[in-house]
Amino acid sequence: MRTRITAAVLAAALTPLALTLSAPAAHAVPAAAPYDFNGDGRTDLAIGAPGATVAGQARAGAVSVVYGSTSGPKSSTRTLLTQNTAGMPGAAEADDAFGSALASADLNTDGYADLLIGTPGEDGSDTNDGTVTIVWGSASGLSGARSLFSFFSTDYDRYGRALAAGDFDHDGDTDVAVGSTGPVTLSLVSGPITPTSTSQGGSGSHSTWWSSSSGVTHLSSGDITGDGHPHVVLHGRAANTGHATTALADMEISNYTDWLQRLPAGYVSAVGDIDDDGHADIAVGNDRETSADPAGALGGKVSIVYGGPEGPDPDRAPLVLTQDTAGVPGAAEKGDRFGSGVCLGDVNGDGYADLAIGTAGENGSAGAVTVLYGSASGLTTKGATSYTQNTAGVPGASEQGDRFGERVTLTDHTGDRRADLSVSAPGENAGDGAIWSLRATATGPTASGSTSFGPGTTGISTAGAPGYGTALNS
Question: Where is the signal peptide, in residue numbers (predicted)?
Fold first, then answer.
C-alpha cells in the first residue's frame, strides 16, 4: 500500500492524506550531473565508512569525498565529512553509522551536485530512528548542510538505510526516496529541496512484498520507460521467509495498488541503457547460494532486465549471468558472491552502458571484479575482463577477507566521457577498507597507472573497523 503523506501524525491505519505543497523554487541553471559537487564536469567519488570511529565514538561513521581530476580521483583534493564537521546537523555518536548509504543530485539546481548521506543508527524520537543529511555542492566543493525532512519518525526506524534521488513524481522537481524499516518502509520526499525550503510533502509506502523488520535495504533508479521519468528499483526481504524480493516502482502512480512490478530477486541493482535504445535496463545482483536464497545460484548471479515503454520489456527474457556463463571469466564456486556489487556506465565511450560486477567472495573473500560490455543487441560476454589485486598494475595483493569488489562504480572522474572503474574492499587491512580506481580507455579499464588509497589517506581514523568503501557513488 502507498499513502500520500504530509507532516502530520500518521494514523494507526495508513489512509490517504492530502499533500501540502508550496510554490516551487525557480530553476536558474541546468542541473549538474550527480556527484559533480564542484561543477567542473568531472564526477567526484564519495566513500562511506559507517564503521569509522569519530572523536572516540565507535561506529559513528564518516564519509570521504575525493574530487575528480584529469588523472582520476585525486586523494589530495578531498573533503572529510562527519556529524562533527562544522555546520553539520547533529553530533557523532556511537553506532550512528553515518555514511551507510549515499546518493546525489543537484537538488537546488544551482549547477552543483549535492550529496545525500544516510545515518540509519541515529537516535531521534526513538532508538535507531535514522536521519538523512544533505551537503550542498559549490564551486569550491561541498559545504553547508541540512537534514532531509523526516515525516513520521515514530512509524519507521533506520531512515536513510537506502537512498535514491530523481524526479520520481514527474513534476519537474527532484525528489528523494528513502528506505527504512517499520510500518513505513519507503518514503518519497517531494522537491524542490533547497537550503532554506520548507516541506513540500511526499508519500509513504508499506508493502506486503517485504518484511517490515528488514524494510527496504537498497535503492537504485533510472528512466526505464524512456519518458524522461525515472522509476525506482526497491530491494527488501520477504516477510515470511527472509528471501530477497525486488520490485520496480513507479512513484507517479497515485492509485496505490499497481505501482510495483516484480523483478528478479536480488540484493543490489544498477540502472543504465545497455543497448542504447532509449530505455534504461536493470542489472540485479544476487550473491547468495540457493541454500541461503532460492533465487540465488552457485557462486551468485546477475540478472539483466531490459527496459521498454511499460517497464520491463515483455518480449525479452531476463539475461542470467554466472561465472559459468560462456565468456565470463572464472568459474562458479560456492561462496564467490558474484553480484555483490553491480554498476552500469559507458567505459569505452561507444554509447552503450557496460556492466561491472563485484565478486567479493572470490578466493576466500579476496575478491574480484568483472567487466562486461554493452552493444546494440544487449550485454555481451565478448571481451569480458576480470581484475583482482593480483592483476599486473593494480596496487596491493589479494588477501583473504579483503572483499575486493564488495562495491563497484563506473563514472567519469577525468572528464573524458568514459566511465572509470572504482572498486572498494571494505575488509582490506582487517576492516580498514580501501579504494582502487582504474582509468577508462577505448578498450576498457586499464590497470596501468591505477591508484589506491585507504581511510588514513583521507583523514578517517583506522580505529576499530571503519569499513571504508561500504558505500560508494550509486
Answer: 1-28
Q: Which amino acid is at 473?
A: N
Question: What rounded mean pLDDT belongs to the chain?
Answer: 92
Mean pLDDT, range 175-187, rounded to an integer: 95
**Using an 8 Å Cβ cutoff, are 186 and 155 in contact?**
no
pLDDT tens-place string over residues 419-445: 999 999 999 999 999 999 999 999 999
Q: What is the pLDDT of residue 364?
A: 98
162 touches 216 (CB < 8 A): yes
Find out whether 221 and 166 touch, Cβ atoms under 8 Å.
Answer: yes
- Pick left, alpha or beta for residue 327 (phi over 0 → left; psi -120 to 50 → alpha; otherwise beta): left
Cell 574480484 belongs to 368
Cβ contacts of residue 100 below 8 Å, gap of 6+? 48, 50, 61, 118, 119, 120, 121, 160, 161, 470, 471
Q: At 71, phi and psi to the nearest 5?
A: -105, 5
**pLDDT band for position 91 (50/70/90)?**
very high
- Please report the domains of the chain, with CATH numbers, ordered by start residue: 45-472 (2.130.10.130)
